[in-house]
Design goal:
By secondary structure, the protein is α/β, with parallel strands linked by helices. The protein contains 17 helices and six strands. The protein has a four-stranded mixed beta sheet, sandwiched between helices. A two-stranded antiparallel ribbon has the order 1-2. The termini are far apart.
């Protein structure tokens, strides 16, 4: 009898656990994560660097012909990344042959293969994110995703192909680990290298896509910048709803907590320093761009706190107007109106 009763208790406990997990996985704060299991997309993922370095030198002309026929937009963008501005007339086939046989690039490719593997996990994450993208932006065509290495030339690229589809490229050599010896500290300081690790690959790639969806900055005031960047973070958060906020914003857990605990202080700082309507980028550059800190704030405050605050404003707006579609959100160009309607007003803790 005792054993049977114990079994029933354990069974009930397991049911409760599964229900709890289901609730956690279907909600984000007070917002439900949509079921996109039946959403159809045109998702494509092409590991260009693996295909390229698996091709012997004699087959490069055929490989080039294949790329030009099947992936012309990516090839064009990729060559722009690799070629210096004064070398646009160089023969593409000869250049690809030189790349294919370059010892440094071969070693770099081998290193990415060793550290990142076959990218099956990342591919799955991109595919799922595109289901969410199709849900929130049903008229938007699904991008084609590519991977490449550029010897630290560019971490991501975005272009449009001949059919109007976005082309997304991910520079794998930017995700080899904060301690990777190939990262020159003069080019990649510690606060940048901290997020040059595999777990950031998906979110940082999709950040470029979210920026594109958000439509860019519509004015030259600080408020215009943080609202635009807030939209981008809001979109990214919905493309990757189970991704920790610290990964999305590239903050440490301590930095994330500091921002959460100091919204009132940050907002007060913006008001006191008359930053919201300032057009002097030098006054707020560290508040919107990568930086180890935020000017005028305590040492523990990370950079880009303005973007964090813009995200809070957008969340407040969408909470007040939940029927607003994502397309309607990105089409709103008046940052002042968004701020006013959001009624965002953080409270002191």
């Amino acid at each position: 009898m005792c054993a049977q009763r114990g079994y029933k208790l354990n069974f009930r406990w397991l049911i409760g656990l599964f229900i709890g997990l289901a609730f956690i996985s279907s909600c984000r704060g007070d917002e439900k994560i949509p079921d996109v299991s039946k959403v159809q997309t045109e998702f494509e993922f092409f590991n260009f660097d693996s295909a390229f370095y698996a091709t012997d030198s004699a087959s490069i002309p055929a490989f080039y012909a294949f790329m030009k026929d099947q992936h012309p937009a990516f090839l064009k963008s990729y060559m722009k990344v690799l070629l210096a501005p004064g070398s646009r007339n160089i023969d593409t086939v000869d250049f690809l042959k030189a790349m294919r046989n370059h010892p440094t690039l071969i070693r770099l490719h081998d290193t990415t293969q060793m550290i990142l593997g076959d990218l099956s996990k990342e591919k799955k994450a991109f595919a799922q994110a595109m289901k969410y993208a199709k849900h929130y932006f049903p008229k938007k065509k699904t991008p084609r995703f590519y991977t490449y290495i550029s010897e630290f030339g560019r971490p991501a690229l975005i272009d449009i192909d001949e059919k109007g589809r976005d082309v997304m490229g991910t520079g794998l050599d930017f995700y080899l680990g904060a301690d990777f010896p190939g990262y020159d500290p003069m080019t990649f300081p510690a606060y940048i290298k901290r997020s040059m690790t595999p777990e950031y690959l998906v979110s940082k790639t999709l950040e470029t896509y979210a920026d594109d969806l958000a439509g860019g900055v519509q004015g030259d005031q600080f408020l215009d910048y943080i609202i635009a960047n807030g939209k981008s973070i809001y979109i990214l958060d919905h493309l990757l709803p189970t991704m920790p906020d610290s990964i999305l914003l590239e903050y440490t857990s301590a930095q994330m907590k500091w921002c959460e605990d100091n919204q009132f202080n940050m907002w007060s700082h913006f008001i006191h320093e008359e930053l919201l309507y300032s057009t002097k980028v030098a006054d707020f550059r560290k508040l919107i761009n990568y930086s180890p800190n935020s000017t005028g704030m305590p040492e523990e405050a990370p950079g880009r706190t303005g973007n964090y605050m813009g995200w809070q404003i957008i969340k407040a707006y969408m909470k007040r107007y939940p029927k607003t579609t994502f397309q309607q959100l990105v089409e709103m160009k008046d940052a002042k109106a968004i701020l006013k309607k959001s009624k965002y007003k953080p409270k002191a803790k």
